[in-house]
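PROTEIN SPECIFICATION:
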Amino acid sequence: MTAHATGGDREPPTQPQPAAVPLEYPINPLQRLILQRLRERGWSYGEVARRGGLPRSTVYTLATTRNLARPPRPATIDALAKGLDVPVSAVRAAAAESTGLHYYDSAPTGQQPPGDQERELLIASIDELTPEDRRHVAALVESLRNRAATQRPDR
């Protein structure tokens, strides 16, 4: 292989170059929530910002800042929840935990895989449902549990 000096004239590569691999580091719960919703919905920071009425820079900062010094303002949490299309309580809990405040009313150790966002979303959403909707959800859960119990391979 030989190298040729061509001055400042370099031809662009014919194939796209792989993006630099970012260093792996743990992300906080608010980052996880934002990034998960972006992936699930195919949204950009700008789309979330537009949907929630926030500046794009705010969404970007919350999604990329690992160590939040303080939780976002309540109005920001409300707008972010709207932009992400998730319950306010889910964003509030993720923001609090990202600043070092933790909720200890979770399932006993070993019953919840770390980062189980569906579980967190279900728990956070329950307070926003009407009593009638909660009864419907409870009936659905009971039905699913009964179905799972009858489909066990040991039967």
About this structure: The domain at 29-101 is CATH 1.10.260.40 (434 Repressor (Amino-terminal Domain)).
